[in-house]
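TL;DR need C-alpha cells for one chain.
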Amino acid sequence: MKIIKLMALVAIFMPLLFSCSGGSSSSGMFGSLPDKYGKFVEEKAKIEKEAENIKSEAEKKELIEKSEKLNKEWKAKIEQSAKELDGKPIEIAECQFSVTSPISLEFKDFHSEARLIPSFKVNGEAKAAADINTDVDYVMNQEPVNIVGYDAEGKQINKNRIGHITVENVDGKIFIKADTPIQFDSVIFNESDLESDKNVKSFKLELLRAK
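>> reply
TL;DR here they are.
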C-alpha cells in the first residue's frame, strides 16, 4: 500500500521535477542563451535609464562603474550559456541540402564586447542533395547560405547566415551541382533572436538570395 502511495506521489510531482530541472525553456538553435541575454538587456536598460538623471561627475563615475560591473558579471553568464551549445547537434529538416556530419555550434568569442553578443564557429558537413536550378541572378561564384528557422505551422520566423557555397552561371542564373559542399564559417547571435528562436520547431539550410 505504501509503495502504491509513493508511486502516486511520484506521478504527481514528476512534471514539476522536469520543469524545475534548470533545462532550457528555449527550443531553438541557441538553447538558454536568449533567456539569459534577455535578462542582461533588461538590466542594461535600467542603467541607461538612470543615466538620464545624472547631475554630477560623481554620479557619472558611479554609474560607469556600475555598468562595467554589470558587463563583467553578465559576460561570464552569457559565455557559460554559449559554451553549453558546443557540440550539440542541430537537427536539419529535409531540404535541398543533405547533412553528412552533424551540424553544431562552438562558442568562438564576443562579436561585440560592449553589447556582449556572442559569435560561434559552425561545425559539421552538408552538401547539395541534387543539382539545384534557381531563378536567382548570378552575381558571384559563391552564394551565402542561411540556417532558417520555422515554427510549428511551417512559417519562417528567423534566419542566420552560416556559410557559403560555390555556384555556377547557367543562362545568367545560379546553378549548384549535386554534392557541392557548404563551407561553414560562423554565426552571430542577434538580438532579433531573443524571442523568435524560442518558437523555432525546425531548421532548413537555404540560399540567402533564394526566391
